[in-house]
Write a structure and sequence with these properties.
- By secondary structure, the protein is mainly alpha-helical.
- The protein has two domains: 41 residues, no CATH class; 107 residues, hpI Integrase, Chain A, CATH 1.10.443.
- It has seven helices and two strands.
- Strands 1-2 form a two-stranded antiparallel ribbon.
- The N terminus is likely disordered.
Length: 185
Amino acid sequence: MRTSARTGSATGNRTRILALRGRKNRPDCAPRHVQLFNFLVKRGTIQKTDVPSFPIANNVDNKRRGYLDKEDMQKLLKIIAGYLHPFLRFLYATGMRSGQASQLTWDMVDSKVTELHVPGELTKNGEDFTLPLVYRNGTPMFDFVTDLKKSTRQPHEPIFDTTDFRSQWRQACAKLGFGIYNLQS
């Protein structure tokens, strides 16, 4: 018998969801469960206060791997749409995560476009930091700084246009064979 998720307790919903997923409440599965609960909150199926707390697994290796060299980056830039180039060059030069960089807004850049102040809510470790954009003599550290200076600045607007970034990134990487695991190598 199927019952609506709106009826029943949060614990009942949680048990039913976990049963549907075929998983036990293990710390190593917590991120998937958190995503699922957040999805249900967004749909209005459950309340945010009904979402249980999940422990974070210890000793998880989430270090980044697989860096592009300059030649590969140039190949990507030839394939991906031009409006994404400043964003990609910024990611490549700084090593910043794409999700973090896509949340950067103009009010985080100083008026002379010499520093970028990143608040802790955007960082993985929760600490604020300042990223210099120019050298002491005033020359840009990165080629995208010139693009940033030319851009229209609206407070609280994103610095970079990241429309369709994920889709274009995946298509370009697939076309170039990047990120494909080869058992032979």
